[in-house]
Design brief:
Elements: H1 7-36, H2 43-55, H3 59-82, H4 86-107
Helix pairs in contact: 3-4
């Protein structure tokens, strides 16, 4: 005879995983805001820029933003991969990535 499944334990495990994923997503979004230099913006400015981005249906603009984002992440991964000290690599990625990204936000 097979052992019955413990649905309550499985559900709790799934809820824990979902909570962990949500927390990781929030943390990664915060890290992204900091690494792009957007933490220098006020919360209202940042929210307004994100609203405009989310409402934009122009495929050309969205594609250009996506390409710029890909370049940002590619440049960031190369810098941090070569840095022997992770803390120093993170600081270099922040200062190097902040200027171009903030200039793009003003153009949007």
């Amino acid at each position: 005879m097979r052992k019955p499944r413990d649905f309550d334990a499985e559900l709790k495990s799934l809820e824990d995983k979902a909570r962990d994923l949500k927390a990781r997503k929030v943390q990664q979004l915060g890290e992204l805001v900091i690494s792009t230099g957007a933490d220098a913006l006020s919360a209202e400015e940042l929210a307004g820029a994100l609203i405009v981005l989310a409402e934009t249906r122009d495929a050309g603009k969205r594609e250009a933003w996506a390409k710029r984002g890909a370049v940002f992440f590619q440049g960031r991964s190369r810098r941090t991969a070569r840095a022997p000290d992770r803390d120093r690599g993170g600081a270099a990625a922040q200062s190097g990535g902040a200027q171009p990204a903030s200039g793009g936000a003003g153009a949007a």
